Write a sequence for this structure.
C-alpha cells in the first residue's frame, strides 16, 4: 500500500483538517454495512494506520498525521484519549504496558457536540442505556465553535499532537530544536510504519506557522529528496497591490509568503496551492445558495475542506488510486508550473450544466478575479454529478479554456456531510431534514497567467529590501540574514515567473485583471 503522511500547522489549517478527517471517518463502514461485505469506496490504509489501543483491547485506525498549533487552540483535545496514553511503549510488542488515568485539560468545558458524541459512545456500549437520555444531534453552530476540536470526530495518536509556542514558530534556534525532535521521533515512526511512503500532503497558515512548516518540510526533504509534496498555503494577505511597503506588519506577511513560495516552487515532484483569505471570496457566487458566514472559520474552512478533499480524492478512491507522484507530474507536465489554482462550486445541481458557464468560486487567485483564463493542465472532480451529464458537458460548462488537452476528469459519489459539518445549505427554516450528501464540482488547474503574481511578489520583496525594515527581528529570524537574502529571494521569484512566462502560454492583457 502506498501511504501518505499529512501535516497540519496553524489554527485555520487545523479547522480545514478537522473537517477533512471527519469526512474520512464517514467513509468507514460499520455494523450492518460491514456485515454485508459492502466495501468502502476509499482505501483507508493510505491515510490511516492500523494499531491497537494502549490497553491492547481495541483495534484502532488513526490518521497518519502531524498537527501543530499553539496550546490555547487545542481546546479540550489532549494527547491522552480513550484509546491511547502518551507512553513510549505505545503500540510496541513484548513490553509491559502501564495503566494511567486519562488527563483532560482543566478549565475548558466540552462543546455540546462533543458531549453528544460521548452520549452516543455510551449508548452503543451499554444495553441498559435509555433512549430518553439521548438528545437530538446538536449540529455545531458557528457561534458555539471555539476551537477546531469542538467538532472533531477522530481519535489521534499522542505522537500526532504538537503544541508550539509563539517563539518556536519564529526563532530559528527554537524552531530547529523542535523540528529535529519531531522528525527523529514522530515523523520517522510514521514513515517506518509505511510499506511504501508515496508522499506528503501539508496544509499550514503562512502568517503564523509558515517559517516552522517550511523548515520542517526542508528537513524532511533532506532525508527524502524525491518524496512528492502537495502543499496548501492559507494566506493572510490577499494581494501585494493593496499593501504599502511601509505597512510593516502586513508587508512582512507578504514577504513570509514570498519566502515560502520561493522555496517550495523550486522543489521537484511538488505542487503548491495558495488559498486566499475568505474575505476575498465573491459573495454572489459563494453565499448563494449557501447561508455562509465569511467571518466564521467553522464555515469557511468547511467549504475549503470540501474542495481540497475532492481534488485529492483520486489518491484515496479504490476506483482510481492515482499516486501523488503521478498526480503532481500530470499537473506540472512542463516542470515549470508548480503553482496551481483551486476552484469549485458547492452545492451544484444538474441544471447548472445546461446554463454554462458555471460560476465557480476561485479560492487561489490574487487580485481581482480572472474573467477567462487558459489552463495548461487540470483535474476536474465531479461529486454526485448525474450520469446523464457527459464529461464534455462538464468541461464546456467551466469558465476556463484548456489550452492543452491534459485534463483529467474523475466522477465519484456525492460528497458526504457528517453531522459535524455546517448545515448551511440554504435557510434553516427551509431544511426539512439535515443534508447528508451534496453534489459539488472541484477543479485544480495550472493556469497560464499565474506567473504574473510571482513577478509582482518579486517586485514587492525587492522594494521591501530597500526599506529599513530588513533589520526587523522577525525578518532576520526568518531568513537568517537581511537585505541580501531578500534580494536573492526576489531574484528567485522573478526567475520562476519568467520561466513560466517563457513557455509561450501567456494570456492576453484583457483576459487577466490582476493589475
Amino acid at each position: 500500500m502506498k501511504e501518505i503522511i499529512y501535516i497540519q500547522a496553524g489554527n485555520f489549517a487545523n479547522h480545514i483538517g478537522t473537517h477533512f478527517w471527519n469526512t474520512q471517518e464517514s467513509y468507514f463502514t460499520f455494523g450492518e454495512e460491514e456485515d454485508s461485505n459492502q466495501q468502502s469506496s476509499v482505501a483507508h490504509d493510505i491515510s490511516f494506520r492500523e494499531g491497537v489501543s494502549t490497553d491492547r483491547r481495541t483495534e484502532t485506525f488513526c490518521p497518519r498525521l502531524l498537527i501543530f498549533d499553539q496550546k490555547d487552540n487545542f481546546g479540550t483535545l489532549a494527547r491522552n484519549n480513550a484509546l491511547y496514553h502518551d507512553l513510549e511503549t505505545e503500540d510496541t510488542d513484548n513490553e509491559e504496558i502501564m495503566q494511567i488515568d486519562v488527563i483532560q485539560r482543566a478549565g475548558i468545558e466540552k462543546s455540546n457536540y462533543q458531549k453528544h458524541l460521548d452520549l452516543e459512545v455510551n449508548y452503543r456500549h451499554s444495553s441498559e442505556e435509555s433512549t430518553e437520555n439521548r438528545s437530538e444531534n446538536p449540529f455545531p453552530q458557528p457561534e458555539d465553535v471555539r476551537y477546531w476540536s469542538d467538532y472533531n470526530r477522530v481519535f489521534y495518536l499522542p505522537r500526532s499532537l504538537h503544541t508550539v509556542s509563539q517563539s518556536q514558530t519564529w526563532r530559528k534556534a527554537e524552531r530547529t530544536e523542535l523540528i529535529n525532535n519531531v522528525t527523529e521521533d514522530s515523523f520517522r515512526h510514521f514513515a517506518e510504519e509505511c510499506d511504501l511512503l508515496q508522499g506528503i500532503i501539508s496544509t499550514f497558515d503562512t502568517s503564523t506557522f509558515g517559517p516552522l512548516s517550511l523548515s520542517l518540510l526542508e528537513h524532511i526533504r533532506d532525508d527524502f529528496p524525491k518524496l512528492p509534496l502537495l502543499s496548501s498555503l492559507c494566506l493572510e494577505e490577499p494581494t501585494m497591490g493593496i499593501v504599502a511597503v511601509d505597512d510593516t506588519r502586513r508587508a512582512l506577511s507578504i514577504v513570509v509568503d514570498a519566502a515560502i513560495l520561493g522555496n517550495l516552487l523550486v522543489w521537484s515532484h511538488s505542487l503548491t496551492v495558495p488559498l486566499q483569505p475568505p474575505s476575498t471570496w465573491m459573495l454572489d457566487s459563494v453565499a448563494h445558495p449557501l447561508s455562509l458566514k465569511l467571518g466564521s472559520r467553522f464555515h469557511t474552512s468547511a467549504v475549503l475542506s470540501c474542495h481540497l478533499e475532492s481534488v485529492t480524492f483520486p489518491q484515496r478512491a479504490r476506483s482510481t488510486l492515482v499516486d501523488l507522484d503521478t498526480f503532481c507530474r500530470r499537473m506540472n507536465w512542463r516542470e515549470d508550473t508548480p503553482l496551481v489554482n483551486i476552484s469549485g462550486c458547492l452545492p451544484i445541481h444538474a441544471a447548472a450544466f445546461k446554463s454554462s458557464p458555471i460560476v465557480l468560486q476561485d479560492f487561489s487567485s490574487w487580485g481581482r478575479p480572472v474573467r477567462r483564463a487558459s489552463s495548461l493542465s487540470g483535474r476536474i472532480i465531479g461529486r454526485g454529478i448525474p450520469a446523464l451529464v457527459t464529461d464534455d458537458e462538464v468541461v464546456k460548462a467551466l469558465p476556463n479554456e484548456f489550452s492543452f488537452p491534459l485534463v483529467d476528469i474523475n466522477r465519484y459519489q456525492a460528497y458526504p456531510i457528517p453531522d459535524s459539518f455546517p448545515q448551511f445549505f440554504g435557510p434553516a427554516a427551509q431544511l426539512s431534514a439535515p443534508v447528508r450528501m451534496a453534489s459539488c464540482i472541484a477543479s485544480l488547474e495550472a493556469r497560464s497567467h499565474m506567473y504574473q503574481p510571482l513577478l509582482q511578489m518579486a517586485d514587492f520583496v525587492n522594494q521591501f529590501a530597500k526599506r529599513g525594515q530588513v533589520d526587523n527581528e522577525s525578518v532576520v529570524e526568518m531568513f537568517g540574514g537581511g537585505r541580501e537574502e531578500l534580494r536573492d529571494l526576489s531574484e528567485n521569484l522573478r526567475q520562476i515567473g519568467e520561466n513560466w512566462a517563457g513557455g509561450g502560454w501567456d494570456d492576453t492583457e484583457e483576459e487577466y485583471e490582476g493589475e
Summary: The two ends are 47 Å apart (CA to CA).
